[in-house]
Amino acid sequence: MEKSLIIQREEGVATIFLNKAGAGNTFDEQMVKDLTEALLELEESTDIKVIVLKGNGVDFSQGADHQWDERRSQLSYEDCHQDCMEVAKMLYVFFSLTKPTVVVAHGHVQGLAVGLVAAADVAMCTENTTFAMTDVRYGLIPSLIAPYVVRAIGQRFMKRYSLTAEPFSGKKACEMGLVHNCYATAEILTSQLTNAIDHLCNNQPEAMRLTKQLAEIVSEHSIDDQVLESTSEWLSNRIQSDEAKAQLSTLIKDKM
Predict the structure, then answer these.
(1) 231 neighbors 211 (Cβ within 8 angstroms)
(2) What's the pLDDT tens digit per position in 217-248?
């Protein structure tokens, strides 16, 4: 049986390929389980600094397998709920990884896959990438991806495209903030992906971990005396950390 994922490791970078190309890289129970386990394993791997997620073949992912949805509709409520919780866990694990994550969106990106794009730290695509949140077309709702999509594009765009279920282009996805960059060709995207990975690999792991955490925390609070105090504490601790001291010392020596 073909594996649902292909994982390549090279020089601190783990690239995960969704590997159901013949079925549009659609998700089912096994792929959800495999991706969750792979992400947790890579999170603990000391030799991995950056995690990249791609689709094998033409499409990144066409979302959930409709046969899987049909099977879930026949389960007891408790079993169906548990199955949905496994998907929610997969999305949250990806979102909450301490290591930088990069999603390369291409071809068709639908439903659940849109949530993975929204949850990534760095997301890029080509102009001919097509996105869609089609849940309502099948009597479903995009509840599991909503926390990440709303964070990425805001409530109004989320409602606009999840209610109509219409496709939108890579360029539109970039304008809304679902992806950070949209490139004219796959060749340009590949070049820029390499550039982004090089930048990430040049940075300090603990500083990147804390920066991800910082962004989430400060987004939840108004700027007040407490935020001023806590952010000053964060920077003071980093300035005096062994990681920063080593890098600052090297920087000063190089300039002398």
Answers:
(1) no
(2) 888 888 889 889 998 988 899 888 988 888 87
CA–CA separation, 39 vs 27, rounded Å? 16
In terms of residues, how long is the chain? 256
Tell me the sheet residues that pair with 182.
125
- Backbone φ and ψ for 204, nearest 5 degrees, come out as -85, 130
Segment holding 159, helix H or strand E: helix 146-164
Q: How far is CA 38 from the centre of its chain?
A: 14
Comparing CA positions, the residue from 143, 77, 151, 165 lying closest to residue 120 is 151
Q: In 3D, which of 5, 75, 76 has the Cα closest to residue 39?
A: 5
- Angle at CA 202, nearest 5°, toward 118 and 233? 75
Whole-number Å distance between alpha carbons of 111 and 135: 7
**Contact (Cβ atoms closer than 8 angstroms) between residue 131 and residue 167:** yes
Alpha-carbon distance 241 to 238, whole Å? Answer: 5
CA distance 148 to 188: 27
Architecture, CATH, for domain 5-201: Alpha-Beta Complex (3.90)
- For the segment 74-87, what is each residue's pLDDT rounded down to a tens digit? 999 999 999 999 99
Residue 182 DSSP SS3: strand
User: The tokens of 239 are what?
Assistant: 């300035």
Spatial contact of 183 and 126, defined as CB atoms under 8 Å apart:
yes
pTM of the model: 0.93
* Cβ(165)–Cβ(134) below 8 Å: yes
- 108-110 and 130-132 beta bridge pairing: parallel
Q: pLDDT value at position 221?
A: 82
State the first-to-last Cα distance of the chain, in angstroms, to the nearest integer: 59
| DSSP label of 208 | H
